[in-house]
Amino acid sequence: MRDVDLAITGGEILTMTDAGTVPQGTVLISGQRIVALGSDAELGPYQARQTLDARDQVIMPGFSNCHTHIGSNVLLRGLNEDAQLFEWLQYMWQLKENFDHETLRLASLAGLAEMALAGITSFNEHFDAYAVTPEIKALGTIPLRATLGYGFADVGLYASVGPWSYEALDNFALIVDEHHNGMNGRLRVALSPHATYSCTEHLWRRCAEVAGEHGLTIHTHLSEGEQEHRFVAEHQGSTPTEWLHHMGLLAPNLTAAHCTTLTDGDIALMAEHQVKVAHCPISNAKLCSGIMPVRKLREAGVTVGLATDGPASHNTLDMFQEMKFGAITHKNHHLDPELLTVNEMLAMATRDAALAMHLPECGTLAVGQLADVIVVDLNKLHCAPRYDAAAALVYSSRADDVVHTVVDGQVVVENGRLRNIDLFSLLGELRERAGALRQRSGV
Ligand SMILES: [Zn+2]
Q1: Which residues contact 119 (CB under 8 A, 6 or more apart)?
Q2: CB of 107 closer than 8 Å to CB of 311
């Protein structure tokens, strides 16, 4: 008889691979990997140290949130609505300058808790220029899979973080030694130059150099609306994508978030250099950054994953909302209801999002893949009568329909409850500290 650590039993399995769906089956996990999956007849006898019952529910890969900012943005949620992008960034900066470590740790915990409960098992954090260690501490409490992009900038609004940026880049070998592939491989570090309007050519080139030295990924904001295009045209005489290409930044290790304002030439460059795109439809719509040319990008062969962006611009860490809003927005924009099917939206939130954050071992359920798995309950009024799981998941399900969240083979959420944390006291403490932050920032 086969011995395994964890069995997720009796659910409809959406593998998100060519194997398709198993109408009723079980996923077996040992250590951090999936060791078997299929119908009970296919699996044969096994003994599991722990079992999660998924009868009548859906077993699927956890969501990969391939562009977000949790620590900082949780503290900015709902504080500066109805503003222009550049003005919005300026307002947020007033608070960011007053962040302290304990407040950031609590905000990170809250963001991790929100994602774990919503079935997000991995995330690509872009630190827009502030401390990383509070979030690393929080990841010790709520163990999601994380790529932490150290945030750099040296001009404009963010000029004051220039010296810190160069110092961190000069010492990046130490950061890599200390954290990269830490926490059983769940934690990765990356480089996050902020954007084309906040980093000089010197800083971009330095990031490319350091990424090359250590084999790291780069995660940035790119082509997020007309303001950025005008700025780069004026200062560099090119589009933001052309400017990155000119500096040698376009490469398979680059994740570019937003990309709403791309020319056909930009799209060809991104496809040629296998740049990955993180698509944040709600944030783009809310900040009026434009509509990403999703059809052209996908037709050109560019990997496009879905992402929530930070809770300051979304305002939740909820990939169900992102799938629904993304599909509807593009259908309506192209007047084409056949664009972006429910299965394509699910893939963009799982498999493609994992690829967009350079995690090919996540985002699908198959033997040998990392065990980042969620169970979603579709026995809800808002999903009834449940003819088709994919349709229910994309258009009807909500974050709180997630029952179990497993990351790296560990059960992080069981029966809708987080392990290791008292949510009530976390919310109280966070509210108090966020209030003090707002007061000392004078906003
Ligand atoms: Zn962002």
Answers
A1: 62, 63, 319, 374, 376, 399, 402, 405
A2: no
Within 31-105, strands assigned E span 33-38, 46-53, 58-61, 63-68
Phi then psi for residue 5, to 5 deg, are -80, -40
Residue 160 Cα to ligand 1 midpoint, Å, equals 20
**Percent of the chain scoring above 70 in pLDDT:** 100
CB atoms within 10 A of CB 126: 31
d(CA 68, ligand 1 centre) in Å:
6
Measured in Å, residue 148 CA sits from the centre of ligand 1 at: 13
**Cα(195) to centroid(ligand 1), Å:** 10
Second-level CATH architecture of 2-61+362-418: Roll (2.30)
Q: Between 3.40.50.300, 3.10.129.10, 3.20.20.140, 3.40.50.150, what CATH number should domain 63-356 receive?
A: 3.20.20.140
CA 288–ligand 1 middle distance (angstroms): 14
Q: How far is the CA of 275 from the centre of ligand 1 (A)?
A: 17
- Phi first, then psi: give them for residue 202, nearest 5 degrees: -60, -45
Q: Which two tokens stand for residue 90?
A: 């300026």
Are 411 and 11 within 8 A, CB to CB? no
Rounded Cα distance between 350 and 341, Å, is 14
Write out pLDDT tens, residues 179-224.
999 999 999 999 999 999 999 999 999 999 999 999 999 999 999 9
Inter-residue contact 77 to 311 (CB < 8 Å): yes
CA of 354 to the centre of ligand 1 (A): 17
What is the whole-number distance in angstroms between the Cα of residue 351 and the centre of ligand 1?
Answer: 21
Is the sign of the CA dihedral 410, 105, 307, 354 positive or negative?
negative
User: Could you read off the pLDDT of 32-61 as tens digits, one per residue?
Assistant: 999 999 998 999 999 999 999 999 999 999
Map out the domains of the chain as residue ranges. 2-61+362-418, 63-356
The predicted structure's pLDDT at residue 129? 58
Q: How far is the CA of 383 from the centre of ligand 1 (A)?
A: 31
